[in-house]
Amino acid sequence: MNLFKFLVGAATITVGACAVAGKVRRDKQRLEELDEFLCPDIDEPIEKEIQPSVSPLKNMESDIMGFKDAVEEILPVTLTYSFDSKEAAKQFQTEIAENGLTSSYDDEDKLVDVVYHEGVNESDLKILSDTLVNACTNTSAKYKGFHFNMV
Fold it and tell me: pTM value?
Protein backbone atom coordinates (compact mmCIF):
# COMPACT_ATOMS: atom_id res chain seq x y z
CA MET A 1 0.00 0.00 0.00
CA ASN A 2 2.88 2.34 0.72
CA LEU A 3 4.22 1.72 -2.75
CA PHE A 4 0.83 2.70 -4.23
CA LYS A 5 0.72 5.92 -2.18
CA PHE A 6 4.26 6.69 -3.23
CA LEU A 7 3.43 6.19 -6.94
CA VAL A 8 0.26 8.33 -6.69
CA GLY A 9 2.21 11.09 -4.91
CA ALA A 10 5.03 10.93 -7.47
CA ALA A 11 2.52 11.07 -10.35
CA THR A 12 0.75 14.06 -8.76
CA ILE A 13 4.04 15.90 -8.33
CA THR A 14 5.03 15.09 -11.94
CA VAL A 15 1.67 16.34 -13.32
CA GLY A 16 1.95 19.55 -11.25
CA ALA A 17 5.53 20.15 -12.41
CA CYS A 18 4.50 19.61 -16.06
CA ALA A 19 1.61 22.08 -15.65
CA VAL A 20 3.89 24.72 -14.15
CA ALA A 21 6.52 24.16 -16.86
CA GLY A 22 3.83 24.43 -19.57
CA LYS A 23 2.50 27.69 -18.10
CA VAL A 24 6.00 29.17 -17.88
CA ARG A 25 6.62 28.21 -21.54
CA ARG A 26 3.28 29.73 -22.70
CA ASP A 27 3.94 32.94 -20.74
CA LYS A 28 7.40 33.26 -22.27
CA GLN A 29 5.98 32.72 -25.76
CA ARG A 30 3.25 35.36 -25.18
CA LEU A 31 5.83 37.86 -23.94
CA GLU A 32 7.94 37.27 -27.04
CA GLU A 33 4.87 37.81 -29.26
CA LEU A 34 4.02 41.00 -27.36
CA ASP A 35 7.60 42.27 -27.68
CA GLU A 36 7.51 41.57 -31.43
CA PHE A 37 4.17 43.40 -31.73
CA LEU A 38 5.25 46.45 -29.72
CA CYS A 39 8.83 46.67 -31.00
CA PRO A 40 9.09 44.86 -34.34
CA ASP A 41 12.44 44.35 -35.99
CA ILE A 42 12.21 46.56 -39.06
CA ASP A 43 15.06 46.94 -41.49
CA GLU A 44 13.70 50.05 -43.20
CA PRO A 45 12.75 53.22 -41.33
CA ILE A 46 9.12 54.10 -40.83
CA GLU A 47 8.21 57.39 -42.45
CA LYS A 48 5.12 59.22 -41.35
CA GLU A 49 4.04 62.60 -42.60
CA ILE A 50 3.13 64.86 -39.71
CA GLN A 51 0.38 67.31 -40.49
CA PRO A 52 0.99 70.80 -39.16
CA SER A 53 -1.47 71.82 -36.50
CA VAL A 54 -4.05 74.35 -37.54
CA SER A 55 -3.75 77.62 -35.68
CA PRO A 56 -6.73 78.97 -33.74
CA LEU A 57 -6.80 81.98 -36.09
CA LYS A 58 -7.22 79.65 -39.07
CA ASN A 59 -10.04 77.91 -37.20
CA MET A 60 -11.63 81.30 -36.59
CA GLU A 61 -11.33 82.27 -40.25
CA SER A 62 -12.90 79.01 -41.40
CA ASP A 63 -15.69 79.40 -38.81
CA ILE A 64 -16.44 82.92 -40.02
CA MET A 65 -16.34 82.00 -43.70
CA GLY A 66 -18.69 79.13 -42.90
CA PHE A 67 -21.37 81.68 -42.03
CA LYS A 68 -21.77 82.55 -45.73
CA ASP A 69 -23.78 79.36 -46.27
CA ALA A 70 -26.17 80.43 -43.54
CA VAL A 71 -29.28 82.53 -43.82
CA GLU A 72 -29.72 86.01 -42.39
CA GLU A 73 -31.98 84.70 -39.58
CA ILE A 74 -28.98 83.16 -37.76
CA LEU A 75 -27.66 86.58 -36.86
CA PRO A 76 -26.50 87.87 -34.49
CA VAL A 77 -23.58 85.58 -33.82
CA THR A 78 -21.19 85.89 -30.86
CA LEU A 79 -17.48 85.13 -31.21
CA THR A 80 -15.58 84.62 -27.93
CA TYR A 81 -11.93 85.47 -27.18
CA SER A 82 -9.80 85.04 -24.06
CA PHE A 83 -7.02 87.31 -22.83
CA ASP A 84 -4.14 87.24 -20.38
CA SER A 85 -4.78 90.77 -19.15
CA LYS A 86 -7.48 93.40 -18.93
CA GLU A 87 -5.32 95.84 -20.89
CA ALA A 88 -5.02 93.45 -23.85
CA ALA A 89 -8.79 92.94 -23.83
CA LYS A 90 -9.37 96.70 -23.78
CA GLN A 91 -6.97 97.19 -26.71
CA PHE A 92 -8.77 94.41 -28.62
CA GLN A 93 -12.14 96.04 -27.98
CA THR A 94 -10.82 99.42 -29.12
CA GLU A 95 -9.45 97.98 -32.36
CA ILE A 96 -12.64 96.16 -33.30
CA ALA A 97 -14.83 99.14 -32.29
CA GLU A 98 -12.99 101.26 -34.86
CA ASN A 99 -14.37 98.83 -37.45
CA GLY A 100 -17.94 99.01 -36.16
CA LEU A 101 -18.06 95.82 -34.08
CA THR A 102 -19.65 95.73 -30.64
CA SER A 103 -18.29 93.67 -27.79
CA SER A 104 -18.58 93.03 -24.08
CA TYR A 105 -15.90 92.11 -21.54
CA ASP A 106 -16.21 89.62 -18.68
CA ASP A 107 -13.63 90.70 -16.10
CA GLU A 108 -13.88 87.51 -14.04
CA ASP A 109 -13.10 85.11 -16.90
CA LYS A 110 -11.14 87.63 -19.01
CA LEU A 111 -13.34 86.94 -22.02
CA VAL A 112 -14.52 89.28 -24.74
CA ASP A 113 -17.69 88.46 -26.67
CA VAL A 114 -17.88 90.10 -30.09
CA VAL A 115 -21.40 90.40 -31.44
CA TYR A 116 -21.73 90.39 -35.23
CA HIS A 117 -25.08 91.22 -36.80
CA GLU A 118 -24.29 92.63 -40.27
CA GLY A 119 -24.49 90.43 -43.38
CA VAL A 120 -23.49 86.91 -44.33
CA ASN A 121 -22.23 87.62 -47.84
CA GLU A 122 -18.63 86.79 -48.62
CA SER A 123 -17.28 90.35 -48.68
CA ASP A 124 -18.82 91.23 -45.28
CA LEU A 125 -17.44 88.05 -43.75
CA LYS A 126 -13.98 88.68 -45.24
CA ILE A 127 -13.93 92.17 -43.67
CA LEU A 128 -15.02 90.67 -40.33
CA SER A 129 -12.38 87.95 -40.56
CA ASP A 130 -9.59 90.39 -41.46
CA THR A 131 -10.58 92.78 -38.68
CA LEU A 132 -10.61 90.05 -36.04
CA VAL A 133 -7.39 88.41 -37.26
CA ASN A 134 -5.56 91.76 -37.06
CA ALA A 135 -6.96 92.52 -33.62
CA CYS A 136 -6.09 89.02 -32.36
CA THR A 137 -2.56 89.28 -33.72
CA ASN A 138 -2.01 92.71 -32.14
CA THR A 139 -3.32 91.71 -28.71
CA SER A 140 -2.48 87.99 -28.42
CA ALA A 141 -6.16 87.11 -28.15
CA LYS A 142 -7.11 83.44 -28.12
CA TYR A 143 -10.17 82.46 -30.16
CA LYS A 144 -12.51 80.25 -28.13
CA GLY A 145 -15.41 79.70 -30.52
CA PHE A 146 -18.78 81.09 -31.53
CA HIS A 147 -22.48 80.62 -30.92
CA PHE A 148 -25.62 81.88 -32.56
CA ASN A 149 -27.94 84.16 -30.59
CA MET A 150 -31.31 82.89 -31.75
CA VAL A 151 -34.08 85.29 -30.79
Answer: 0.60
